[in-house]
Amino acid sequence: LVLAEHAARHGEVDESRKALERLATALRRQRDGAYAEEAERLAWSERGPTGDAVTELAQTVRSNGAS
Fold first, then answer.
1. Span 12-18, mean pLDDT?
2. Phi, psi of 47, deg, nearest 5
3. Rounded to 5 degrees, what are φ and ψ at 33?
4. Cβ count near 2 (within 10 Å)
5. What is the per-residue pLDDT across 27-59, written as a single tens digit (0 to 9) for each?
6. Cα–Cα–Cα angle for 21, 33, 26, rounded to 5 degrees
7. What one-character-per-residue DSSP string does 3-66 give?
8. Domain ranges in the chain?
9. Of 46, 1, 47, whose CA–CA distance to 21 is shortest?
10. pLDDT at residue 67, as a whole number
């Protein structure tokens, strides 16, 4: 989560995509499929992940027990 947030805030699209893909993999291992799908959707959105969208996902995931 931290890597995805940092990369998105700093406009590092490629790094943000990679971090979100890793997050999706970790979420699937925890059986959080809906959040994993959202992370992948953000990662591969045409314009790239935005800082606001990644922050929103991170807050949602954290509020449900992930770090």
1. 94
2. -85, -5
3. -60, -40
4. 10
5. 999 988 899 999 999 999 998 899 999 999 999
6. 45
7. HHHHHHHTT-HHHHHHHHHHHHHHHHHTT-HHHHHHHHHHHT-TT---HHHHHHHHHHHHHTT-
8. 2-63
9. 1
10. 52
